[in-house]
Amino acid sequence: MSVSACCQCSELRRGKHRGAGILLLLAALPCLPAAAMEMPEATQIHGFVTQGLISSTGNNFFGPSKNGVSWEFTELGVNASYRPDPDLQFSAQLLSRRAGGTDNGRVRLDYGFVDYTFSASESGRWGVMAGKIKNPLGFYNTTRDVAFTRPSILLPQSIYFDRARNFALSAPGASVYGERVGEGGDLYLQLAALRPQVDDQDTKFAFLGVDQPGNLDGDASYIGRLLFDRDGGRLRLALSAAQINMSYRPGAGDALSAGSIRFEPAVLSAQFNAERWSLTSEYALERVSRRGFGAPVLDTTNTSEQCYVQGTYRFAARWEGLLRYDVLYLDRADRDGARYAALSGNPAYARYAKDWTVGVRYDVTPSFMLRGEFHSVDGTAWLPFEDNPDPFGTSRRWNMFLLQGSYRF
Amino acid sequence: MGVGVRQFAAAGRRKGHQENNHRSGLKERGESQESRMALLNNKHPFVRVVLIYAALLIGLGGASDCEAVDVIVNPSVPVHPISRGVARAIFGMRMTRWPDGSPIRVFVLGDGDPVHVAFCKEVLDIYPYQLRAAWDRLVYSGSGQAPTELASEQEMLARVASTPGAIGYLERRLVNVRVRLLPVQ
Fold it and tell me: What whole-number percentage of chain A has pLDDT above 90?
């Protein structure tokens, strides 16, 4: 944030209205200049606008990108935080995301919660959050729709699956967190109980396949992350795990019974940050167990495996290059998809994806950046269903070129 | 390569006027730099070149064209030396109260400002992009707020001097009685 306009703006607004609520600020938002804003001390407003262009061969990604150009990748967000007291913060973010057939740009509440620090000292703090909170999974999940916080235009799709993501994004719940500042490094722990939002088509597709008439409901679920920062973040290590529970409510004339689904991801994350370069890797296993559907094909347990290794290099002021290898196996017991193909008749390559990515980022100003990125992919395991409805109309080997501009305040 | 040479030169210059607080900011890396400098002075020119390149490659190089940078606070803040870990927590926007309970107000300069770069590297021993990433994670997940960014050191001096609970940083030659130095150990 903070273009110089912001500082002038804060000077103008530095008044006696510190108590003015977040709602008033949100209501006043359209009247404010588009530049970055800093309100009276206790309140901040930030946001981002991101537009991508996608062109691909073989398959569509986020709209009609195959042998053409899709503009259907837009991310808009605005957030406000209000801190009436150093220990108390109210935060909310509205998000609109358009991503081909998978997201239509509908404005939704990305998060909205109250954060209370009940114990703080020089050696750390403990606090609680309640409301709709972001799920702390891996390094990037909590800010995955903010281009400036991503290492690339698309996050590694193995772990940060964009074709079905709502159940992993944010959810109503409560969380307790602890931070410890120590000589050897800092420790962060966050534990949350939540009720996942799973009533969308994507989630149903991902767990039950297409054309099921019933609906999914979120049940009590749990997520936790332990993060270790050494030397102020030179080395960062994290372990995240979750148990997401949902149950199926059969529709009229449904062949399926009222089954239940348990999704259990575990992510191991590591990052090393030097002055010019950063090396990041995450490895995940995700187990999906389905029970009680009365359908042998569905009532199974399956574990997927995903991993990426990513290097970024800041080769000149305001320039950054990226190289990444990202791999996903939807069933680690059937990595090449042969068994799946024999059982279902669908292409085996729908069960894996190996993605080489090279990219470049240029920061035009501190708050405006441009990115370009090229993907060479073998497999379609994370290809969006909605953009490619016919499994036989897809290509095993495909390429994708993306451009993106992002502004933040 | 120029960057690496300046870095070593700067490390040498600083040796002359190190105070407890600033010295500590350099502690670990400063000492290792000194031993590296000794190595540089004693060996064959070829070894020097190789070492400088090696230092550049592993990212030790840092162009700081400014004087030593100190942490400053508003006179309302009781001055007790703080650890580097606490300084990182304060400037990382994770610590929001002074020990007496009063709110901390954090002021910084822009990411590319040489004084900010020097502050990050020498006092906090991190890189500016890491601090920016930490603020972004807080701001865009709703779990914290960003510091107030100022345009110049003059503004830094004025705002820290006039804001109760304020903390910032300044080149030592600009520090005056309107603010206090906060030693970081």
Answer: 78
The verdict on a CB contact (< 8 Å) between B86 and A92 is: no
A·B CB contacts under 8 A: 132
Q: Do A46 and B143 touch (CB under 8 A)?
A: no
Decide if A160 contacts A140 (C-beta within 8 A): yes
- Is the Cβ–Cβ distance between A301 and A289 less than 8 Å? yes
Q: Which fold has domain B69-181?
A: D-Maltodextrin-Binding Protein; domain 2 (3.40.190)
Q: How far is B18 from chain A (nearest CA, A)?
A: 22
Q: Which residue of B has its CA nearest to A132?
A: B142
Residue range A33-59, pLDDT digits in tens: 433 444 457 899 999 999 999 999 999
Which domains are assigned to chain A?
Answer: 1-41 (no CATH), 42-408 (2.40.160.10)
Nearest CA distance, A130 vs chain B (angstrom): 12
CB contact under 8 A, B139 and A81: yes
Q: Is A222 helix (H, G, I), strand (E, B) or coil?
A: strand
Candidate from A46, A125, A232 with C-beta closest to B124: A232
Q: What is the mean pLDDT of residues A193-213?
A: 87
Give the A window 148-167 contacts with B, CB below 8 Å: 148-149
* pLDDT at B174 (0 to 100): 93
Average pLDDT, chain A: 89
ipTM given for this complex: 0.88
pLDDT digits (tens, 9 = 90+) for A71-119: 999 999 999 999 999 999 999 999 999 999 989 999 999 999 999 999 9
Angle formed at CA A264 by CA A262 and CA A270, multiple of 5 degrees:
165
User: By the 8 A CB rule, do A256 and A296 touch?
Assistant: no
